[in-house]
């Protein structure tokens, strides 16, 4: 017997279709706004894009030619249109740092970030959810305060600093971590990229030495990155659980004489799973923010490291492509969490 | 009669602050402030947060007195010295006193926090109130713009702005401000929506109050408490974002003692000299924790709906 929540809200097919269309429309509008924002930031830059290409010793004629080639003599809306159509064709320009198209670079570095972020979210959710449930069930007792304190600390800690301290303690002092990079330098390039995820690739090809080295290197940045999502996930879990535990079906279950653990896990927790999935999806997106700093600290050859190293040399093409990508991923994850909610929530399935 | 007068004011004040017979609006406001203060003092964590913030303000204001050394004076012979009686937090790679640099760095942190809040508060309030009060297409367009800004993680967007504007303290402030207003606007809009439909607004409108008057005399005062709480809680995030920008070299430029930049500069030496990264990073952690604690306390006080 599964506990029933509130009765399904009455709705017919028409409004639902309309709201679906509206959702698609709003996503498209947000995407266009996103493009306009990165376009505007790219134009804000005080560096003259022409001089960045030809250097400051070129003649005026060369300057004018490049100026026209870049389309800077066109009206702004034409320039914006050109920018959007370039991006739609997957053309983000050429990165100064590598001399290759930016999009190729990003595709190459992205798996490293996804691998790191995925492990982080597993750590974050794996610890955050039980902590949140504990805090909710032991509300206003010592356990609740302890969890609140932990989350407060991790909300207040600069993640790049925690990375450095982690390196001092676990690499230099204890030797538990392999240090910076994805694997020890000795093992670099042994495993051919199949999925791009080094842990999986090394397992597939049976290179256990590489696997252990990769694991030694990834656990520390992943744990530190996971800490921030842990704080968010445990806070949200706590408030979801508190909401459920105040419902009448919980009271009924307790009156029936059901054991407390059954009440918590079989009844209350079951009803927050959908909300949890959406929260974890959102937390996954915000991991990208911490990844920029953590990858810089750990010399992780991923997307965040790529972004900052392009930032250092002032290659705005590459930087803006990365920023745009982060925005698109964010919107995608928002949409995903919305869809997941609709798919998994039994109340929307009932009709 | 004369003995009465000498003791009357002191007894009178506490009586005036706690009596049920309130005679003036000023007394009511004073009582509210007094009981708020008492309530706040009953939350030890919030008081600790407030004390740390006070300490931050004092060390920023009186940095030359609080510091023991010149924050940018180099002394290569005393480079990378561990913490000692002479250099409380040790010295960095150029022999500068880390304690003094952290004290002076409080000025930079405080400047960023105050400037960003002063820019972001009014902009967020205005956009949110306008969207919530006018509704219709104004609301839709303003909220769409807010959504676009919210669809970036704040550090990544601030990074993009700071990179485009060029590194520097002023540009870091602008970059952070550009990313920090949307949550305020969202909050102000939500508050306005609930206030807009309440009876006293309808009454004021019936009496003939203009829209501008409704907005600024009736809606604004009720939006303010939650916006201030949100700003205060945001300050912790602002400090972390600023430190992140500084760490990536986009904030205040050397030799100014910005905490994030100090942490970044210490990276090369941290394995042998732990204090060069530990000290400035701890300063960031403690101050942002203080703003979180203070903000939580303020929220419990000003916004009873959110209290656990």
Structural description of this entry:
The complex is a heterodimer of chains A (351) and B (308). Chain A is built from 14 helices and no strands. With 351 residues, chain A is mainly α. Chain A has two domains: 62 residues, no CATH class; 200 residues, MetI-like (MetI-like fold, Orthogonal Bundle), CATH 1.10.3720.10. The longest helix of chain A is centred in the middle third of the chain and has 38 residues. Chain B has 308 residues and is mainly α. Chain B has a single domain, classed as Orthogonal Bundle (MetI-like fold), CATH 1.10.3720.10. The radius of gyration of chain B is 24 Å and the shape is flat. At the A-B interface, α1, α6, α7, α11 and α12 of A face α6, α7, α10, α11 and α12 of B.
Keywords:
heterodimer, A: 351 residues, mainly alpha, MetI-like fold, 2 domains, 14 helices, 75% helix, globular, disordered N terminus, B: 308 residues, 12 helices, Peptide/nickel transport system permease protein (chain B), transmembrane (chain B)
List the helices and strands and how they pair.
The complex is a heterodimer of chains A (351) and B (308).
Chain A: H1 13-44, H2 49-54, H3 60-69, H4 76-88, H5 102-137, H6 142-156, H7 159-173, H8 198-204, H9 208-245, H10 248-255, H11 260-297, H12 303-313, H13 316-344, H14 346-349
Helix pairs in contact in A: 1-13, 5-6, 5-9, 5-11, 6-9, 7-9, 7-11, 8-9, 9-11, 11-12, 11-13, 12-13
Chain B: H1 2-18, H2 25-41, H3 44-61, H4 63-66, H5 98-134, H6 136-150, H7 154-165, H8 169-196, H9 199-207, H10 211-247, H11 259-266, H12 275-302
Family (chain B): Belongs to the binding-protein-dependent transport system permease family.
Main location (chain B): membrane
Protein name (chain B): Peptide/nickel transport system permease protein
